[in-house]
Structure prediction request, 720 residues.
Amino acid sequence: MCFGSDKTARPAIIPQPAMIKKILLFFAFVYLSAHVFAAPAHVVIRVPTGTPQPAALAPLLAKWRESGLISDCLLLTRGQPEKPGDLAIFETFAVLELPGEDAAERWQRDAAPLLPAGLRVRRADILVHGEISPRDSQRSVFVVNTYTTIVPRDHYDEFAQAYLKPLYEGQRAAGVLVRHTMFLERDVVGQADALAVLEYRDSDALQAAVAIKLDLRRTLTASNPGYVKFDPVKATLRKDVGGTFASLTELPSPAAARAILISVDGMHAIDLALWVKNNPDSAFARLSQRGVTYTNARTPLLGDSTPGLVSLATGATPATAGLIYSPFFDRSLIPAGAPDGTKGALYTIDEKWVLDMTREDSGGGIDEKKLPRDPAKGNAPVYPHDLMRVNTMFEVVRAAGGRTAWIDQHILYNDLLNGPSSKGLDDSIALERKGTPQTFEGFTAQDKRRVEILLNQIRGFDSGGKNKAGVPKLFGMGFISFGALQKSEGYANAAGDIGSKKLRAALQLVDDSLGRIVAELKQQNLYDSTLLIVSSKHGQSPIDVKQRRLIDRNVIREAVNGVQPDLLAHAALDSIGLIYLRDSAKTDAVAEALRARAAEAGILKVYHGEQLKLFLPTPEQDPRMPDILIQPVLGAFYADYPNSPVGKALLAEHGGMLDEDVNVPLLVSFAGAPGTVSRAPVFTHQVAPTILSALGLDPAALRGVQIEGTPVLPGLKWNK
Prediction:
């Protein structure tokens, strides 16, 4: 092989070891430059105007970033137009940065199909970019300018370099523009969009930029030939679609890989406090030493199982979720088996509507023939999940690709957690309460079976313990024995001390079970990456059995029907009273009749009219809402046949609004937590957004959070 024109023969050159080393280093550098130092690739995703951001989008982007599939992501939500008349071309705007072209091709092949439908997804090239570091993007003001190009790509690139770059760089040099990027869509048939993403330091910088740009234009016109060349003809290069202000949405960063929620039904905050104090080496105490204990936690509104469970799972208060109590009366439904046109049906969420309540497996599930029907939906049977007006955290986790599971005492409870989609739970198991002997031995044995199922799930099996399914991302269970024994055994005194051996043993079972759960998590090397929350659906009253006063439900029924025969449509009566009338016009008269018998009926307060509207919709607004709500005095509750052996043995009940029904334990335990006590007033419907936040998912994916602005629990500093 010859180089140049010299044809004289030369001796062969034998490379020496040092030269070989240099050659190898050179080729290694070339290889690394092409692979390790490959330029990032980018994808632009737009949710079209008028289309709500899909709930699964932010969690999916966060999951990709956490896994390393994408290097970074900028997620913006549309604000006001930059100028009057500007058109918005997105509701949500995302830019994904990938490590290189190979990574982008893998993403396009394997990950892009997982995106929700209806999005505009395009590969994009960066024409111009600059930034200032560090910067506080939470304070920044973002502007997205959209242009449709009407010239070839290379010509538009020339325009961007000569005209746009000096304008952006001048603002960056002045300190007002902290980041700017001009993207040009790739692989578009026809005209491609160019998108300028401009990040101003803050609102003051945005305002100052107006004068700075005027000065820049004068300077560039006088001194920059490239700028001068394109300034008069820029309208022939692109069509200005419009500018939009946008706000930054931080992708959630997961603090935990999974979450376990435990409900100890009937347990009070004082039960947890005394147990930890008297048993400093207990599992409860050890969990509290790596967590935050909220001593002033309450269930929102009523201390009942149904609203308590729904609140924990949805981030919504019961009025918003649509379930304030069970049983309740729904004026829009038809009872099972009733003729069309029948007005109103009782709905009960417990064991009564399963195929066989005497079996732990419910006899195979919910008996559809027992369910009320909805005339607005062709008389379709109404399942518990159909009652839900907001989604559940289980649905959010499943939509983000996580596995979910729940273990409880009623299959109807589990169906609530399925949410409106009916698909919230991958693994749903309920051991029906009436399917075991109604004794200390029966209740505790059933709780032990629930714990064994949970341990199987921690080991990566399904609830049956035979099939590998993977450890759920969100799962948990409810304990029933402590609450059941509260009703039959009672407390030793008003301070909440436990004197009964059986009641103590029931709480010891919970503590021992928590110890086993922690031990299994450690065995599977999952403990430090698991968020564990212990709370309760409701409390129980009275703690002081000397205050117990059992009142015949007929006292309330007679007071209502004394105003007008057969006026009472339904009365839910426990340590609360929900009164549904056939004629709401008689509400005031019924309220006065109840007040007249307040001493006999043990009534502390009667809520109706404007007082009830302070925390519940009216029956006209919501067919499930009562006309009147009764709060008995502490210790009083209602029952049928109070003088029967069953009635005389009943020491406590739940459902009311007083402290002993609603002040429940709330312990949030996670790796790196300092072991603190918070007396901040919090509610159990803050649990769901807290769990989603810890899992790196967006709490705003919960409809309840969107409606009510439910915050995560305070004082939690994740050890990420």
Summary: Residues 440 and 502 are 7 Å apart (CA to CA). The first strand starts at residue 41 and ends at 47. Residues 501-523 form the longest helix (23 residues). The chain is about 35% helix and 20% strand.
